[in-house]
Amino acid sequence: MISKSEIEDKTIEMLKTVFDPEIPVNVYDLGMIYKIEVVDSTEPEGEDVYDLNIDMTFTAPNCPAADFILEDINQKLTSIHGVKNANVEVVFEPEWTKDMMSEEAKLDLGFM
């Protein structure tokens, strides 16, 4: 039996493997992920199955790698045991800024 907190931990783990091809830092540490919500799936299969609702943004509204990044996120999140669906919504409020990056990302990119 997998708990919601375990699914959330695995989601963060997977998001840390998704990179913008133009920036050598993962989308989670870049601060592009605004919300991770783990909810009971509407399509139970006899075991604990969850859906993920993710709100994310891009560093620029016209990001040329947006489709690639979204596809990578979807493939990786739906590969997590216990995840039925990954619903990723792209939002631009609040607008992304460098302040949203983790300390590690700022260091890696030379902002510290």
Labels describing this entry:
single chain, 112 residues, alpha+beta, GMP Synthetase, Chain A, domain 3, three-stranded mixed sheet, 3 helices, 28% helix, 21% strand
Count helical runs: 3
Q: Could you tell me the number of beta strands?
A: 3
Within the largest sheet, what's the order of strands? 1-2-3
The CATH architecture designation is: 2-Layer Sandwich
Fourth CATH level, the homologous superfamily: Fe-S cluster assembly (FSCA)
As a percent range, the share of strand residues is 15-25%
Radius of gyration: 15 Å
Q: Which sheet architecture does the biggest sheet show?
A: 3 strands, mixed
Q: What is the CATH C level class, in words?
A: Alpha Beta
Helix and strand run: HEEHEH
Mean pLDDT: 93
Quote the distance from N terminus to C terminus: 42 Å
The low-confidence parts are: none
CATH topology grouping:
GMP Synthetase, Chain A, domain 3
Oligomer: single chain
Shape: elongated
**What is the helical fraction, as a range of percent?**
25-40%
Question: How many structural domains?
Answer: 1
Helix-strand category = alpha+beta
What is the topological layout?
Layout: H1 4-15, E1 33-40, E2 50-56, H2 66-78, E3 83-90, H3 103-108
